[in-house]
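Margin note from the TA: students keep mixing up input and output lines. Inputs are the sequences; the output is the structure of the whole complex. Example:
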Amino acid sequence: MENPLLSVRNLTLDIPVGGGTLHAVRGIDFDLIRGETLCIVGESGSGKSLTSLALMGLLGKSIRRSADRMDFDGTDILTAKPRAMRALRGDRMAMIFQEPMTSLNPAYTIGDQLTEALLLHKSVSREAARDRAVELLEKVGITAARSRLGQYPHQLSGGLRQRVMIAMALMCEPELIIADEPTTALDVTIQAQILRLLYDLGREMNMAMILITHDLGVVARVADKVAVMYAGELVETGPATDVFNTPSHPYTRGLLRCIPQPGKTERGSTLGTIPGIVPSLIGDVQGCAFRTRCPFAQAACKADIPRREEGTHMFRCIHPDGKRHAEEEITA
Amino acid sequence: MSNASASAVLELRGVTKTYHVKQGLFGTARPLTAVNDVSLSLPRGEVLGLVGESGCGKSTLAKILLGLEAPTAGQVLVDGEEIGAQDRMTLARRIQPIFQDPYSSLNPRKSIFDIVSLPLRVHGIGDRAHWEKEVRTILDIVGLPARVMNTFPSQMSGGQRQRVAIARALIMKPEIVICDEPTSALDVSVQSQILNLLGDLRREFGLTYLFISHDLAVVEHLATRVAVMYLGRIVEEAGVAGLFDEAAHPYTQALLKSVLTPEPGLGVPDTQLGMAYPNPIDPPSGCHFHPRCPMATDLCKTTAPRPVETPGGRVECHLHDPQSPMHNPKAA
């Protein structure tokens, strides 16, 4: 087995708040090899965006980060000095943010923002950097690329800005790309194009990618590996085919029932719901965080939850099959 | 269609809205046709899904229906009566909106009671005791406990806020509700609750919805008829089964192709749409869709297709026009 490019064990993020500590991310593990795409799926507040910021070393000062291991190709991210992290960021690991409207600087031209990382990390001339920028803008499907370099973000549409963000992340040919909801603000047609582009570029450059999203359709189509996040924990992880074909954690199955699936869900029928709300993560959090909303919850769910592993497919539940079979019988 | 228009609660006849847009500080104003000769009829109790990319004119059409914008040409009829002739108060009793973002569509300084009862107060219906009774009833209907009356929007979750927005829209017992992307700001588990609620309310109160969304799976689930909009024109309209199972227009087919269903292994589809949505201020000649259409010929570049009746609705495409030299419905 190839050495992972990124290896994370027991990543924990705590945020001190007025009444105690908010345990936003509670001990997550994953590995990623080159050329592989990991999708982290979860609802708002599940901690998926914080996880990506923690990997990039971009967390606010008040957030406490700890882990047993956070290794990026031999570099320990956990103990790396800010200077070393700056050398990694934008060069070997890059991020595509969710909001193309707010993550571009309105006061600088597209060209300035695109070439910044390259000029900082590589010894290239301004001319060479601009040529590279044009090359990448063309690659992400922007027409009249050279004339765009002099434009400001407000002169571009949302779809174009998102493409500029992607081109910017690719400038130094990073080994790892973290994309936080890169297509959420876009039309379905543009979404398909941008995902296809990311997917093709990832294959072409052998990049590893972490894609953070709440859209299960996107996950199914793009992911090699899936991690389902609920209340700061990865409740189910595994190859995309396993997670979608045999969703084992009751939360994963709940999510899949909530979305209308063309061709499967009867039009106009009542959709599945997940009753209740996400529990507060302030103070001591014990047992399974999903137990307050789970139809199969028992007293034992308050205690430690075992990891169930079937090959590389893992989920955390007191029920050996996550009550998958019981549910199949009810619906059959 | 002709017998449907007899009982149509909402009818649009050749509605056009043209804005005059200045380009640059000293530029001359140029016309931008946001809504171009739209005719639709919506029978009572039906849900018309309106789909299309950003900038196609969906929201302008919603504003015209709400009486917030006056059409440049054409008529909007509610129960056969033109809305231009009715004053805004009367119109507001019959047509109410639910907007996309429950974070910005509720006044943060007003309590839930104030927000939900405002329509009653504006219309001078009843006294405080009556308002309280009505608010209590409507909150119960949308699934909120009466105790939220004295809370403020900031104390509620996104799903609860959207329920408040629905309660406010329904308290006047309107006939038509314009839902402009009502679930796109919500998590999937909350989205399914709101969609179920909208479906239940429609059956219970015989409501008619115009449901605007870019999520085609959601539209397929909730709508009974669907209209596809492109650069201000309705390019195809049909019953939900007809549209989703046998889409006629190449644009509709491309839209449907771009839907990402949660089925692993299928990859990201290639919509073959090309990259750019055209600038509405410079619409392409002939059929507006021809630069992105894989089936386009020289005829499409010069001649706009006329609307043609189909078994379930209407389509604007040369391939479906029996009088066109391009007629070949099988090719599409």
